[in-house]
Amino acid sequence: MPSKHLVVFPGSFDPVTYGHLDVIRRGRRLFDELVVAVGRNPGKDSLFNADERVDMVERLLTEMVASEPDAAPVRVKAFSGLTVDFAREVGATALLRGVRNLSDLQYEVQQAVTNREVAGLETAFVVAGQTFAYTSSSLIKQIAAMGRDLTPLASMVPPLVVEMLRQKKVAKHPLLKRLAATNDSAVET
Asked: Which domains does the chain have, with CATH numbers?
């Protein structure tokens, strides 16, 4: 048995949500150390580049660590490639995953079994609070793309993220333009 239990919480965090922060907060109480692994999902286009996502998470974690100094240390690292390879690289004993609903659970259990069989890596699940059960980064990007006012996002993401989304909208980021155009064509049909 390892003397220190380090857990990796992988995700794209594009953008980071209150749900992500809730999983991190709770994971810091369960493990000796937590690494937030900011990865790239090849199946999705990113709104924020890796450096922006790492910076966003680090800034938000600074506030969390200051308010909960007795919880486990947490650090943020960008990675590419397989999550299990990254987890081995940092010496993780487990992966941490948030589960919002039954669809998440079905997908996450399949991934957990694969990770255990392929890499001998266990997965710990944290069930999302009801407040976060329907929040996703994809939904937030859709709202940012189609909404005139981003203020309603304040219940799903921290003010820092709302401001960064506002900047992407003002800069007419291609992903936001594409999402808005997709919605416009869906409405016309």
From this structure: 6-132 (3.40.50.620), 137-184 (no CATH)
